[in-house]
Amino acid sequence: LQVSVDQKHLAEARSGILSILHTIMSSVTLLWSVLHQADISDKPAAASAAATSNINLGSTKKLRQQILELLGPISMNHGAHFMAAIAYVWNERKQVKTPIRNKVIPVASEEQLLLVELVRSVSAMHTETVMQTVKEVLKQPPATAKDKKHISLEVCMLQFFYAYVQRIPVSSLVDSWPSLLVLLKDSMQLGLPAPGQFLILGVLNEFILKNPNLESKKDQRELQDVTHKVVEAIGTIAGSSLEPTTWLRRNLEVKASPQIVVDGTNLEADVEDLMLTVMEASSFTPSVYSVHALTLLAEVLAHLLDMVFYSDEKEKVIPLLVNIMHYVVPYLRNHSAHNAPSYRACIQLLSSLSGYQYTRRAWKKEAFDLFMDHTFFQMDASCVSHWRAIIDHLMTHDKTTFRDLMTRVAVAQSSSLSLFTNRDAELEQRAMLLKRLAFTIYSSEVDQYQKYLPDIQERLVESLRLPQVPILHAQVFLFFRVLLLRMSPQHLTSLWPTMITELVQVFLLMEQELTADEDISRTSGPSVAGLETTYSGGNGFSTSYNSQRWLNLYLSACKFLDLALALPPESLPQFQMYRWAFIPEASDDSGLEVRRQGTHQREFKPYVVRLVKLLRKRAKKNPEEDCSIKTIPWEPGHLMLTLYVIRSMEQLLPFFNLLSQVFNSKASCRTGPVYSHNPTDSSFTGSKEGHKLESQKVFWSRARQNIEEMVEKDFLEGLIKT
């Protein structure tokens, strides 16, 4: 202080230190983390508050004080430089590999969180000061910080700030709301890169989670305004992979460009890699973040809007949601493989919005139109559960939508098949509508649509009246399976005769085809044995049984039998009266001997036994397609038939083999876990019986979940089943 110093030299010294401040901070934070590790490892948890550890540099408590004494004046006099250096070190300390993928906003590493603790420990850096300084860095990053290549300082600064907001007390956050509001408002004007805008939404979401209600109405209005602006900005990024369909029309469609899968930690690195692979980077620049924007909206939007807008203000949300849906629907119309990441994100977003009844006006028409689209079921299996939630919310809260669907099915069935129209197209339309009705029932709770069951039964019987229409009848069997899972047994009593009759009809058709093949091969030799069998129905239409549509019907019917056998007998009491017709019982291996009026008739053999015999014969003639050696596993309460498509009838042989063996060998095997069938065991006390019943409930609950997952996949079309 006594020596006079040239101000010019002082300024040079100051700017020299500020230019290497990021390096100084890197060293200081490294030491801070060493002190943290020493404190954790050296002292027991109970004494952690009182004791201080020693490392070879001295007492950790004194070293902490030294660090804070160094940083205090710097942060007071050069706040922007200080925070910019923190942002630089934050980037240095990021994890190379993140354990949690699929996060748009990356999860901070332990070393990064120590930076938050360090800043909170500096006495000069109050919450408001931090907010004002972060805003200053975003608006005008220090010149020295700008020189650092390969780092978006604004994004790193906001990543730090997001972690900081997560870890400060609610009271500090609420008290500094005016500063936070200015920071959020100003950030929207700065044209930040997309990851920076995602973090702004993240910060806003954190504030609302911690403090949903502001006391002042003016503050609440300002919160609503800033929320509206932030969400709209993210919506614009979400729509950046879309382009107008034509020059004048407002409709949008998905660009044929790559879409990056979400991984927050490597967000910018992923984008850089994509830029290098594309020669003309400019054409892809705006759209590389669209999937991330959609994913973030899916995570936070529905709950965020519900918290910010009170019950009497929900109407204000609708215009905003209509704008968001304008970007979402085009992605949901596109079922191409390159659009799959966007499709998944959009369906999650729509599913989360559908849970709030006040949002329905913004999406119900679009959702129903998508549901009725002929490509609707071409989706990833992971999306089905979201669509089930959407369809359930759509139909439950608005019975007119369900009645509209029922009317469409009825109208399609009442229109007569004309020779002058495309018969196949009309039948496909009927099958499509029936499948959507089945999916609606499947998306509901048990017995939710019980009062509509007579109408549904009428629609199913009407569909079965048309002979030789496998595309329609296959959907009827899928519908039967849905009804077994969604209606109580007592409500299905009147439908069982129809279900059994149709199952018998299909097995007779299979038997007829296999027998006809055998006759052809016997009379004409092996050269024509592989020809398709043609049958002319009563309506004069000639049908090839071996065509793919007939194979789909055979598979659908077999899956119905599979489900009826997998469910516990008490849930299908009516089926137990008919099962002897299909599978051999343990009591009589040879089948049922029938005597009528003194004449001895041919013994009845269950359909499974008859079909196994014929399929084995056919398999021997086609060794390249021999499925007789293939086996499929069997577990109580699990479906045996897990194929989604078959190319020949022989592929059903392992299933029929299993049916003829398992249910014939042990009656006890067919109804569930082994422990549930031991009535003679006198060692069971009352408490053990209770435990046994509880175990059975758990077993059937899990089994039912597995069964429903398998049935769910049967709705899907195309090759995407996993």
Automatic annotation (TrEMBL):
InterPro entries xref list: DOP1, DOP1_C
Matches recorded under Pfam families: DOP1_C
Domain DOP1-like C-terminal: 160-521
Coiled coil (residue ranges): none
PANTHER family: DOPEY-RELATED (PTHR14042), PROTEIN DOPEY-1 (PTHR14042:SF22)
Name of this protein: Protein dopey-1
Organism of this sequence: Characodon lateralis
